[in-house]
Amino acid sequence: MNQTVAPLCSIRALTRYLSLFVWLGLVNNSIHAESPTKGAIPAGLDFSHAMLVTAKDADPLEKKAVVVLREEVQKRTGIQLQETTSLPDSGEAVISLSTKATASGMPEMIRNELGQSPPSHPEGFRIVTKGGPHPLVVVCGADPRGLLYGVGRLLRKMELRKQSIALSSALQITSTPALPLRGDQLGYRPKVNAYDAWSPEQFDQYIRELALFGANSIELVPPRTDDQRTSPLMKLPPIEMMARLSEIIDSYGLDVWIWYPNMGKDFVSEAGVNSELAERDDVFSRLKRVDHVLVPAGDPGDLDPDVFFPWIDKMAVVLHKYHPKAKIWVAPQAFNPTKVWMESFYHHINEKPEWLGGVVYGPWNPTTLPEMRQIVDPSLPIRYYPDITHNLDCQYPVRDWDPAFAYTLHRECCNPRPAAMKTIHDLYAHYTSGSLCYSEGINDDINKFLWLDQDWDASTPPIETLRDYCRLFISPDLAEELADGIIALEKDWVGPLAVNHQVDVTFSQWRQLEAKAGPEAKNQFRFQMPLQRAYLDAYIQRRLIYETDLEKQATDVLHTESAHGTFTAMEKAEAILRRAVTEPVATDLKDTCVRLSDSLFAKIGWQTSVERHGAEERVRGAFMDGIDEPLNNAAWLKAQFRAARNLPDEPARVAAIDKILNRTNPGPGGFYDSLGAPDCQRQPVNTIPWKDDPGTLRSPRVTFYYKPDWPEDREIPLAWKKQADTLYATPLRLAYDHLDRHAEYSARATYSGRTSGHMRLMANDQFLISDKIVSRHPIIQEHRIPKEATAGGHLELEWTAAEGERSCEVAEVWLIRNPPAQP
User: Fold this and answer.
1) Which pLDDT tens digit goes with each residue over 104-159?
2) What is the mean pLDDT of residues 730-734?
3) CA neighbours within 13 Å on the CB side: how many for 137?
4) Residue 133 burial by CB count (10 A; 0-12/13-18/19+): exposed, middle or buried?
5) Phi, psi dihedrals of residue 558, rounded to the nearest 5°
6) CA dihedral for 737, 741, 743, 745, sign (positive or negative)
7) Which residues contact 502 (CB under 8 A, 6 or more apart)?
8) What residues does 762 pair with on adjacent strands?
């Protein structure tokens, strides 16, 4: 078929045209749903031989939308849609693309299909479909962006197979985004788990795919952040890639944002300021397009507001030298903000500097988003900057995550969280002008598309987005089953892992999909990532059950045989514990995880191992280096055995083993709690349901932080590797009832973790126990409780972080009933 078709000029052609027009009829302009229209329109519309009708006077961005449709269809089907600016004279199926501005130049039949009310709201689109022997689909955007989003919706609903283009049913859609800002951060830097290995072509494709789900903004990072300057995986120097990405984003008509932290040491002296300005001059001058710049006050960097805002005044001059319409947004992020610091920051915000685009709500902000909306001038927009990428030590940690997952998968594994993302989005989105999500790579790929769809229309069920995602990116034949499988993965992370039967169900489902999927689907990275997660979940569960049992066997040996010889008992116990390495469980599952990990690195540069793939650090994206992290106390037990063997005599060794076996024993009338453990009897007092405080700014969370490469953390009890944690001024409370009114008690606590510093401990809101607690110094500390505090049989212990500290973290608590004093 020719690339263009001559105008209709014969009587025969005119007859065909009129017949087709009569058959098509008029369109109901009031339809807004994506469901099949009522009437006799049959399902299964075939566009395999369709002509692509486009506007004669289309501008470059409108033409870009046409290119996107043609290229994405060809990739999946092998079909090259032939393009024309007039209706074909042979009655083929037609796909029509135009904008409101160019629709008037389209053939009359297509104008009539749009009726008297083409899409008018910015970025909106309308899709009209008619069935029959020669199907027609008309996509019209309110503007070029709207057309791109209409193309995206059409591609999402199409079933694209080899040499086949079909719609399962006729679509009638009129859609406009609910929020004006929708996008993601794509940071080209060594810290991320994939982006630093990408080529410009890979970024181009990914940006396009985000746009197909409604993204209108992409955020870049500058060459200097809190990372290394470069990585061996980078295809281009960072500044060159940044310039290329600015061009690519502009080619789709999307906004270019920059996340620009203040990494310098001097923002006050003339020399220091000039040095920083020179760097920004170099960056801004190289970029074709910059629409907005986000400058966080901290994380990284740390500037007092009275220094921060005058510095931004100077930076704005340099920015506007090259991008005069660009706006600067600021975020009150700081590692240890005081009340005075926050008040000063908001004061500067509400003075509304001329350069100010708005304020950004992101991680590590002691103010809740509703509170920020009340504090900030109503005329100033708030951009949401949600962390959708991390599992722990983050803005929205996985709720009640089993420690076995935390120790192994850590911060950045494949983490689809459709139910959690929906809850978090719906709770906060209405306070904002939209979101530009924080991401550290590809592990959160599914969350990105879910969030974009929610920012476009929060009434969209997550399962519908997942169906579109799987239909377009993996296989139209498996879309339903794959979407259900992704939903199931989130359920694997609910509740104690050792007794979570959902893990086996999910694993079985994904193995069936693996067997059912054809080679093309199985080769897609978006199939392999969740498939690997299913294998990982199953592998870690089997290891947990196995290694927990080994520890139980080892301690049983110590109980029964120490009295008959400590050396023999310890040797037997060690031999049992060693089986986790010498006789590992489920090695076939691990081998599959390794194979998929290598395949994903080859496809998309996903760095899940430091040694194999060049990842920057294990606790971020290199989870494959942690999947064999011990899930019992073998390392601690072996260290205790070494110390016991060096004792001078058998009675001393017997006493040492008794101490090992009774490490957590609080004694008669006492209580022990490993805070955050799935079987913890006493959880911190929490009066706010998770759905109302998913960021846990006003309620406790569980953190999992330790450094496996720190000598002091190599041989510690598992209980020290997780902590109950509260942020900023929120207290951590534990309550005890039915205490002996006549007894005296002591509280012993393990203080481990990453971010806590100085803490205060109170009892029953009136007794100061200590205001000099410093985390890890020493790691276990004991505090005497005044007898008056327990005289009523009830005790509430309350830890609070000191002013300016980020959190307080407590791993274990013993409440010990002290023996009465000897007369």
Assistant:
1) 899 988 888 888 677 889 999 999 998 888 899 999 999 999 999 999 999 999 99
2) 96
3) 28
4) exposed
5) -60, -40
6) positive
7) 488, 491, 492, 494
8) 768, 798
- Quote the distance between the C-alpha of residue 457 and its chain's center: 19
Vertex 657, ends 745 and 555: CA angle to 5°? 100
> How do residues 543-598 score in pLDDT, each as one tens digit?
999 999 999 999 999 999 988 899 999 999 999 999 999 999 999 999 999 999 99
> Which H/E stretch holds residue 523?
none
The per-residue pLDDT of the chain, averaged, comes to: 91
| Class of residue 649 by CB neighbours under 10 A (exposed 0-12, middle 13-18, buried 19+) | exposed
- Identity (one letter) of the amino acid at 502? Q
Strands (E), 237-300: 255-259, 292-296
Helix (H) or strand (E) holding 792: none
| Mean pLDDT, rounded, for 351-371 | 96
Token pair for 381: 């927009």
Alpha carbon separation from 177 to 146, 149, 426, 581 (Å, rounded): 9, 10, 15, 54
Residue type, 195: Y
Average pLDDT over residues 740-755: 93
The residue written with tokens 């999992």 in the block is 704
Residue 569's closest CA among 577, 560, 578?
560
Q: Which residues face 95 on adjacent strands? A: 52, 137
pTM over 0.90: yes
Please give the torsion angle defined by the CA atoms of residues 651, 655, 658 and 659, in that order, rounded to the nearest 10 degrees.
-160
> Where do we find the tokens 């929906």?
422
Report d(CA 452, CA 422) in Å as an integer: 11
State the DSSP H helix or E strand holding residue 720, giving kind and residue range, or none if neither.
Answer: none
d(CA 374, CA 44): 51
466 touches 450 (CB < 8 A): yes
Give pLDDT, residue 712. Answer: 67
Identify the three-state secondary structure at position 804. coil
Strand spans (E) along 308-424: 327-331, 356-361, 382-384
Q: Residue 292 pairs with which residues in a beta bridge?
A: 257, 327
Q: Are 475 and 161 contacting, i.e. CB atoms less than 8 angstroms apart?
A: no
Give the strand pairing for 701-703 and 767-774.
Answer: unpaired
Q: What's the token pair of residue 500?
A: 């979570």
DSSP state of 34: S
Per-residue b or e along 327-347, where b marks 16 or more CB atoms closer than 10 Å to that residue's CB: bbbbbbbbebbeeebbebbbe
138 beta partners: 96, 128
Q: In the β-sheet with 45-46, what is the strand arrangement from edge to edge?
A: 45-46, 164-167, 158-161
Q: What is the pLDDT of residue 708?
A: 59
> What is the crossing angle of helices 200-212 and 445-456, to 10°?
40
- Using the predicted structure, report yes or no on whether residue 29 has a pLDDT greater than 90: no
Q: Quick one: pLDDT band at residue 714, thresholds 50, 70, 90?
A: confident
Give Dmax over CA atoms of the chain in angstroms.
120
Q: Which residues contact 67 (CB under 8 A, 6 or more apart)?
A: none
Could you tell me the CA-to-CA distances from 342 to 354, 358, 428 in Å, in that order? 21, 16, 21
